[in-house]
């Protein structure tokens, strides 16, 4: 078992920066907030795709579900949802601070929990699928989810829902959502850091390396898959709830279930940083977000070409990602002694720990 | 919904209309899906840019129409152009993903799809374009009602069938076709037997692009094209191939035609907004069904 | 993983973050003698067709104002310039970009995005920073019930789009000795905020005559095929078909109406001009009723563009490929003119003074008269309804501009 102290220095640097950033650069609060969202995206995708080898293209479902659950609770506490949506946003919501925060807190908790429920149900459908079928199946479910919400008049169908407006000062609002996403990103990171160093982390690595063997070794693969998926879903659900409030107006196809933007970004970011590592997704998300924010808006239409080329180059020629590349180049600095291709632990170590504990 | 079902029972000719519309469009789905099954089966590449190849073919037909030539003549142009394009894409990208894990080809071709759709958008603009082949629309009285069939739909149905037949014959009888089938069965053995597998792969991918291009010309003449329509066509192809299994040509044909018909009926009964939900819903159902099948299979082995 | 690896990661992230802050442009509301207007507009994605029409409209008016000496404030003459970001037709991205325009680029004067959904996402942002926005493309009624103080729309709201077609249909029914409530009406609308808002307006108007819809479908997401709905329309021998789905929906509807020989006496759809249906589908579009915010045959004029007809000519001469100038472009131009006059009226660059000037503005433009209600919508300009007759768009309602009368399709 490795201690977490080695993450202390970089962790503290990032924490201090994270707390100070909105005060140092007050005009960039929104972009920094999105940066933490992207980090959460990449980390939660990597739990499945990197650590467990299940490449999902449908994780965005949890984001959208969380967004809608939170919105429905925030509105539904004080209004009839059917009436509210039937008015196409014509009802103006004037919440007091207390009403607003009651709704927000309850909404975000429910968003996380309901996303877990969806993950368990969704998992029971798709977990039998392997490889590309899993990727295509999850993509299909994500597309279907958007379509179904879009056809459901009670939740506003394609017309969406206007979110309650924050009753205070706009700069306070920006800070509130910044810190919500900051705390969420950090919490996700810390949680996953602890998780990966437990037996559970080794078990999901074993599923990635060889699911049949892992099962033969006595790992209950289905249970592990469901739990890992639920963890992703929990954090993604909350992030959806927060983002919905930040966006101010939600609708199913482009905001809640953006399968081909956010849904693909999360994959690309993990791959870019190095999938199956703890810091890879963080690094990938940070780089991706910055490059995107700095260049994207200047490209006026060409940005998608650039993104497409980036994906191709990334997956075809540079799939190990930045951290993976660094590991290959200087294995000794990463404490890898035995084999060069192991992501963190060697197969041998993994097997030892698993059989040792599994037998008891 | 119940009203719509009643309507189908009271006016049986409507069923014929929906069935025909579904079959005509389904035949074109079959073409694109067949191409996908080919590259999937021969080189284990899952091409998510399939739909964008189709849309490229559509724009070729449109461009030919703009030059004042009947877009039907776009068919050979699209086949030749897309063949070359596929060959180039093979050497630029696909070559590197063949030996890699399954997710790589999926994501790499997704990137390719983004590039193609956006370049089309920059070249031709985001407008929905139509290609008019100048054929008439016929009304045919049947079962106490009247159905409309546009000649171009019927013609494109025939052409799709002819193209499919040509490709199947080619695979059966030509040297290259035999080499492709040999490579699909066992690439290493094929190599030992002196087949240049690299060339076979390139040819297969180019052939797929050409088939898609042809499908695109036909789609453009009976539906609309727009730079961002590719993804739906890709998903359809995946549904069809997943349902049929690659290497199963009659299966692909049945699944493709069936999907075309299912979309029409679901649009009629449930409302047009459910048309695409039907496609993805079918995909999920097929996958679950496969899962049940394979778990049975697994138990049997144990 | 070891210390050095996480150090690499954290240092790299730190450097990159610093890069983000350093690389962003530090522009301001006024650069030298140029006033910067900001807009997030759809250049890619599903609204791109109309996003580009709107951008063309903005650019044409900016060019014209600058040619005529620019904006004169306090004896000094300023040029106008617009900064655009591509919002990718997604509301969340639009809100993000509006935030960026205001907080980072220092934009103090906004032009609207395309479509109601995008405006719904962006208006709360500009509102909370108290940045005035003159928008030309968001017609949803709900934008004007929120008590926004900084949002102004030059166009008529969405419930007015097709209201007059229902009246026309009712009159037509009575003329043929039928009761309006017996008319069989089919609705097929895109599943997006604008079209659904238009649908709500249509349903309200239908209620007045006791009419009910026999078909009430939504278009599929990619708007590529509505033939199943049209088969129903034919089977039920519908009297009136109403469709709305921005340009893509209009193109699909027009094509399939032609191919399936749908012979409904009254067909109404939005965005006929923007989708260029006459150019694409010829005679089969005869008889379509097309609501419009503006028509080149209307008798409006101003000192910038001359008459509506002059604008039409100038626009066609400037941009290629337009047979009819879509009203989306004309109203975008009008929004720029509002800014110009408001700056001069306020005689100041202070955003709150300019905002007050906009709210009390009364002006005549080639696009129509402009006067904003306290809620921010333009109450001085009615919608018009045109019918495609022999390949031409003729105004049939209101009577003031009617050059022809409504005729049912054959």
Q: What does it look like?
A:
The complex is a heterotrimer of chains A (360), B (302) and C (410). Chain A is an all-alpha fold and 360 residues long. Chain A has 16 helices and two strands. In chain A, strands 1-2 form a two-stranded antiparallel sheet. In chain A, helix 2 packs antiparallel against helix 10 and helix 7 packs antiparallel against helix 10. Chain A is globular. In chain A, 57% of the residues are buried. The C terminus of chain A is likely disordered. Chain B has 302 residues and is mainly alpha-helical. Chain B has one domain: Orthogonal Bundle (ABC transporter involved in vitamin B12 uptake, BtuC), CATH 1.10.3470. A two-stranded antiparallel ribbon of chain B has the order 1-2. In chain B, helix 7 crosses helix 9. The longest helix of chain B is centred in the first third of the chain and has 31 residues. Chain B is globular. The mean pLDDT of chain B is 86. Chain C has 410 residues and is α/β, with parallel strands linked by helices. In chain C, the strands form four sheets. In chain C, strands 1, 2, 3, 4, 5, 6 and 7 form a seven-stranded mixed sheet that branches. In chain C, strands 9-8-10-11-12-17-18 form a seven-stranded mixed sheet, sandwiched between helices. A two-stranded antiparallel ribbon of chain C has the order 13-14. The longest helix of chain C has 21 residues. The termini of chain C are far apart. Classes of the chains: A mainly alpha (360), B mainly alpha (302), C alpha/beta (410). At the A-C interface, helix 1, helix 2, helix 10, strand 2 and helix 11 of A face helix 1, strand 4, helix 3, helix 4 and helix 6 of C.
